[in-house]
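ok so for the tutorial part 2 we go from a plain amino acid sequence to predicted structure tokens. step 1 is just haveing the sequence, like this:
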Amino acid sequence: MTTTDLIEPAQAPVASPGLPPIGEPDVRGRVRAEYLEMPGMALTPRQAAHLWSLPLASAAELLTHLVNSGFLIQTDDNRYRRPGCPRCT
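step 2 — the prediction. this is what the tokens look like for a chain of 89 residues:
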């Protein structure tokens, strides 16, 4: 047995189980569902990117879309939450 026999071949990176591209309706639906499931959730764009395994720019774009559609509001401290959340005011 040679030393090269002990080295495992390089494996292709495994695709992340993250979200599909930001334009996909499934992504928006999943994010909406999570906000509805956790009504007190208030995330910064960076936290949202981490939570949904998205690039920061994509997370910010998604959050802006949800604000423009009236689903979320943006707070003064740059967090995104559901409007009318009794625990969030």
